[in-house]
Amino acid sequence: MVRPANQLPPRVILLLLLLLPLGAGDPLPTEGRLRNSCIQARRKCQADPTCKAAYHHLGSCTSSLSTPLPLEESSVPADCLEAAQKLRNSSLIGCTCHRRMKNQATCLDIYWTIHPARSIDSDLCLKFAMLCTLNDKCDRLRKGYGEACSGHRCQRQVCLGQLRSFFEKAAEPYAQGLLLCPCLPTDRGCGERRRNTIAPSCALPPEVPNCLELQRLCLPDPLCRSRLTDFQIHCHPMDILGTCATEQSRCLRAYLGLIGTTMTPNFISSSNTSVALSCTCRGSGNLQEECERLERSFSHNPCLMEAIAAKMHYHSQLFSQDWENPTFSVMERQNNPALRPQPWVSFLFSCTCTLILLWSLW
């Protein structure tokens, strides 16, 4: 039997029907179809007097936050933080926009009002601090060590305990964002905020001890000893070329695990990303070489330096991406399944490949 030229064979039609997913012909998302669009979220907020007032006040904070802060000011203005905290449980915090949605400009205006941390100046450390403030758990844990490590209240062991609690319990993107935020070399304010993240005036020894003395105090403590061992394993260069023992993520986790122990490291200045222990090798005598080896495992460790640089680059990329389509927040972007290729893209690709294959066999 001769088949008409414009007729596909039955087996091809059957395969295409099997490939066709339910809902493949659905239209593109509109405002009504978007999950919690910012326009819808603002309508809900305006029905609540408290939410409405906080939203309008936060809008005025965007312009004030665009002015660089002096060195001694390491936080967002209190009234702006208060407004942000009042909105933390509202639907505005998780609201989204879509590139081709109706009233996109209005939606984006609402989004950037709620997320001023990503629309202000280039101080990414301030931005990550704001993001932490907008998260209940991160904000609570950060306040915990902030109070324990503050000036006249400083009790070093309590401060170290609260620091450990923060870096153990806060979600990794928030903790790493606060500590490993990138700064321009000329932005001393940003660099100082980063250096002050761990409250060094309280967390670090008041007098600079010998590095081997720090290690001597660490080793009898099971927690400190295990954290130091993790660091030595996962941030260890295996050869003269600097080949690292494990992947960068493990090295960073091991590094952060030391914060709050006797071996707490920190950035050495506000102008670069070099880190070191707060100790010296002066007066080490016959143990000078051993002491310098310990000190250099932090200050001249290529695996650690590369891991820190890579994470800071990643954090800077989070803010330099195409934010005209802020469908998800910075902290949700890397793990949210909604950001993976849409099913219809995979469907079209598979159909195209199948048609080419079947047409060649026909």
TrEMBL record:
<keyword id="KW-0675">Receptor</keyword>
<dbReference type="GO" id="GO:0004888">
    <property type="term" value="F:transmembrane signaling receptor activity"/>
</dbReference>
<keyword id="KW-1003">Cell membrane</keyword>
<dbReference type="GO" id="GO:0007169">
    <property type="term" value="P:cell surface receptor protein tyrosine kinase signaling pathway"/>
</dbReference>
<dbReference type="GO" id="GO:0009897">
    <property type="term" value="C:external side of plasma membrane"/>
</dbReference>
<protein>
    <recommendedName>
        <fullName>GDNF family receptor alpha-3</fullName>
    </recommendedName>
</protein>
<keyword id="KW-0472">Membrane</keyword>
<comment type="function">
    <text>Receptor for artemin (ARTN), a growth factor that supports the survival of sensory and sympathetic peripheral neurons. ARTN-binding leads to autophosphorylation and activation of the RET receptor.</text>
</comment>
<comment type="subunit">
    <text>Interacts with ARTN ligand and RET: forms a 2:2:2 ternary complex composed of ARTN ligand, GFRA3 and RET receptor. Interacts with SORL1.</text>
</comment>
<keyword id="KW-0732">Signal</keyword>
<feature type="domain" description="GDNF/GAS1">
    <location>
        <begin position="125"/>
        <end position="202"/>
    </location>
</feature>
<dbReference type="GO" id="GO:0043235">
    <property type="term" value="C:receptor complex"/>
</dbReference>
<keyword id="KW-1015">Disulfide bond</keyword>
<dbReference type="GO" id="GO:0007399">
    <property type="term" value="P:nervous system development"/>
</dbReference>
<dbReference type="InterPro" id="IPR003438">
    <property type="entry name" value="GDNF_rcpt"/>
</dbReference>
<dbReference type="InterPro" id="IPR037193">
    <property type="entry name" value="GDNF_alpha"/>
</dbReference>
<dbReference type="InterPro" id="IPR016017">
    <property type="entry name" value="GDNF/GAS1"/>
</dbReference>
<dbReference type="Pfam" id="PF02351">
    <property type="entry name" value="GDNF"/>
</dbReference>
<keyword id="KW-0336">GPI-anchor</keyword>
<comment type="similarity">
    <text>Belongs to the GDNFR family.</text>
</comment>
<keyword id="KW-0325">Glycoprotein</keyword>
<feature type="domain" description="GDNF/GAS1">
    <location>
        <begin position="38"/>
        <end position="119"/>
    </location>
</feature>
<keyword id="KW-0449">Lipoprotein</keyword>
<feature type="domain" description="GDNF/GAS1">
    <location>
        <begin position="211"/>
        <end position="303"/>
    </location>
</feature>
<feature type="signal peptide">
    <location>
        <begin position="1"/>
        <end position="25"/>
    </location>
</feature>
